[in-house]
């Protein structure tokens, strides 16, 4: 089954099919189809928790030569930190090992037990930094927000109709090596079971913009509606297709979306008028530099984007 716009219909059919086991009449209509149990709205993600994860990632970098890069001790220590939190929260974690540029590397996959595993909502972030620095905005920010969203799923005891999966990728900075390995390793059948892949790579840039990937229309609308509710204007992120871990998923025909707060591009006057900050200056002047530390984070962007991730995970899986 191909999941694109038609996959949405299939997903709706999934809900109807579940109802039909108790209510389908012989003529195929639904008798008094009471709505299923109402799913609670997504929780507010505590930004202090996300920041606590970032502080841990910074400490890990500091203790391991100043980075968390592919093939370095700081990467594996970052993975062990995230895995420990997920294991304690009841996730089923899998470490996928691969080799890149002569060094061993790892992806971390976390499945939340329950939901229809034929319809998977997957969210991911790359966990590696460049070797120049600790990579706290790029991409501790996405990694920490996805981790805290997963922990919020556990705290809420959320049991959506679809299955939830979370991923932390290795070697994105070497050309999306980890995510490409993961997608290449999936059978055609298992690829078609992923309803959505949501990617978060840099979501707390110190001079932030609010960019929503201009890709799958349903995912894009889910994010845009959330920001509209906050009275924050967004711009479409269009040049990211080849630049982060959603690319291998998109190439495999999986609907993708995501959020981005800007890297080395310069904020325009119009963007400053919309979002504040400083025009004529990069969204992240410390992009891929040693100064991408725990001070290189805009707390407000981190908070809004973390809450938007939880909103989309809840909305797309219910
Ligand atoms: N990690 C990405 C990179 O190093 C960050 C990035 C830059 C990005 N531009 C992007 C991510 C656009 C998503 C979309 O290239
Ligand atoms: Ca919040
Ligand atoms: Zn990067």
Task: Please give a quick description of this structure.
The protein has 318 residues and is an alpha/beta fold. The chain is globular and about 45 Å long.
Structure description:
- The protein is of the alpha/beta class and 318 residues long.
- It has two domains: 8-38; 46-317, Zn peptidases (Aminopeptidase).
- It has helices spanning 5-23, 47-63, 73-88, 136-156, 177-184, 188-192, 217-229, 246-251, 269-275, 299-317; strands at 92-100, 103-112, 116-126, 162-169, 194-200, 211-213, 235-237, 256-260.
- An eight-stranded mixed sheet has the order 1-2-4-3-5-8-6-7, with helices on both faces.
- Strand 1 and strand 2 form a beta hairpin.
- Helix 2 packs across helix 4, helix 4 (136-156) crosses helix 10 (299-317) and helix 7 (217-229) packs across helix 10.
- The longest helix has 21 residues, at 136-156.
- It starts with a helix and ends with a helix.
- It binds tryptophan (TRP), calcium ion and zinc ion (ZN).
- The site of calcium ion has 6 residues, from helix 10.
Fraction of residues in H or I helices: 40-55%
Most strands sheet = 8 strands, mixed
Tally of DSSP β-strands? 8
CATH level 1 name of the largest domain: Alpha Beta
- Terminal residue distance: 20 Å
Question: Secondary-structure element order, as H and E?
Answer: HHHEEEHEHHEEHEHEHH
At the fourth level of CATH, the homologous superfamily of the largest domain is Zn peptidases
Q: Tell me the CATH topology of the largest domain.
A: Aminopeptidase
Tally of contiguous helical segments: 10
The residue-averaged pLDDT reads 90
Ions, cofactors and other ligands present here are: tryptophan, calcium ion, zinc ion
Q: Strand order, biggest sheet?
A: 1-2-4-3-5-8-6-7
Shape: globular
Question: Which regions have little confidence, pLDDT < 50, spanning 5+ residues?
Answer: 1-36
Number of domain modules: 2
Beta-strand share of residues: 15-25%
């Amino acid at each position: 089954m191909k999941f694109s716009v038609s996959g949405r219909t299939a997903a709706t059919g999934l809900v109807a099919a579940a109802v039909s086991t108790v209510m389908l009449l012989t003529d195929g209509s639904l008798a008094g189809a009471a709505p299923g149990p109402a799913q609670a709205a997504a929780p507010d993600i505590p930004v202090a928790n996300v920041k606590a994860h970032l502080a841990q990632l910074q400490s890990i970098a500091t203790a391991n030569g100043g980075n968390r890069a592919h093939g370095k001790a700081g990467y594996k220590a970052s993975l062990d930190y995230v895995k420990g939190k997920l294991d304690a929260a009841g996730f089923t974690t899998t470490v996928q090992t691969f080799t890149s540029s002569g060094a061993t590397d790892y992806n971390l996959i976390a499945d939340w037990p329950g939901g229809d595993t034929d319809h998977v909502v997957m969210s991911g972030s790359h966990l590696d930094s460049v070797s120049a620095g600790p990579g706290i905005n790029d991409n501790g920010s996405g990694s920490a927000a996805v981790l805290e969203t997963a922990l919020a799923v556990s705290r809420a005891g959320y049991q959506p109709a679809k299955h939830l999966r979370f991923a932390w990728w290795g070697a994105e900075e070497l050309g999306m090596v980890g995510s490409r390995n993961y997608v290449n390793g999936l059978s055609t059948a298992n690829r078609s079971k992923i309803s959505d892949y949501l990617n978060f790579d840099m979501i707390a840039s110190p001079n932030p913009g609010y960019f929503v990937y201009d890709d799958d229309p349903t995912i894009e609308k889910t994010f845009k509606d959330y920001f509209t509710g906050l009275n924050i204007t967004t711009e479409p992120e269009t040049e990211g297709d080849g630049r982060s871990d959603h690319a291998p998923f998109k190439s495999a025909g999986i609907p993708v979306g995501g959020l981005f707060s800007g890297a080395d591009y310069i904020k325009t006057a119009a963007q400053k008028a919309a979002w504040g900050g400083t025009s004529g200056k990069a969204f992240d002047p410390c992009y891929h530099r040693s100064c991408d530390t725990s001070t290189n984070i805009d707390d407000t962007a981190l908070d809004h984007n973390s809450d938007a991730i939880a909103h989309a995970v809840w909305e797309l899986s219910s």
